[in-house]
Amino acid sequence: MKMKTIKSRMRTFSTGVLGMLLISGCSSWEWNQWPWAVLEKKGTRVIEWESIPPKPFPILTAVGYAPLEGQPGATKAQRMLMAMRASKIDAYRELLEQVYGQEIENQTTVRSWMGQRDEISVKISGVIRGARVVKSYQVGEHYVVEMELDFANVWNLYRQLNPERRLKSVEYF
């Protein structure tokens, strides 16, 4: 008898909590507005913004290479896996160069109008999201990975974090 009462109370309680969640969720969620339009309520006006996609979405391609010889590993299969990984990292590096460019530093030492030392360093840094492997294969003693970065995917990822907006309408009430 006591067990039935506890189960009955728990069922009533959980039904009540679920009902409250559903009611509060329905009152604040506007299915026809999100995520394509953003409403901003300020004082006596409502401003509606909408996202503007860029017209052309370029697709960047990159090819990464890695030698099979010289890769760490006891067996040929292990060296192949390491070469696959290294060639993918090389392709990512190439995509970084295309998206962000390269920062090049140069230091030259000249004495008596003769070049003594010339030191060049290249730096690339950034984040690549949304790239995908198109092909991956072995050519002779090298492993090759072809990748592409579709900026339509990059834009969608970026838009989730930082929506672009333009004024769609203003209503005064």
Characterization of the model:
It is a single chain. This protein has 173 residues and is an alpha+beta fold. It has two domains: 1-30; 59-161, no CATH class. 36% of the residues lie in helices and 38% in strands. It contains three helices and eight strands; from the N terminus they run αβββαββββαβ. The chain has a three-stranded antiparallel beta sheet with strand order 1-2-8, with no helix packed on it. A three-stranded antiparallel beta sheet has the order 3-7-6. The chain is flat and about 75 Å long.
Give a concise summary.
The chain has helices at 2-28, 76-100, 151-161, and strands spanning 37-42, 45-50, 59-67, 103-111, 114-123, 131-139, 142-150, 166-172.
Number of domains: 2
Helix percent reads 25-40%
- Secondary structure: number of strands: 8
What is the CA-CA span between the terminal residues?
Answer: 59 Å
Rounded average pLDDT: 78
Main β-sheet: number of strands, strand sense, barrel status? 3 strands, antiparallel
Order of helices and strands: HEEEHEEEEHE
Low-confidence stretches: 17-36
Shape: flat
Key features of this structure:
173 residues, alpha+beta, 2 domains, three-stranded antiparallel β-sheet, 8 strands, 36% helix
Write the layout of secondary structure elements.
Layout lengths: L1 H27 L8 E6 L2 E6 L8 E9 L8 H25 L2 E9 L2 E10 L7 E9 L2 E9 H11 L4 E7 L1
Antiparallel strand pairs: 1-2, 2-8, 3-7, 4-5, 6-7
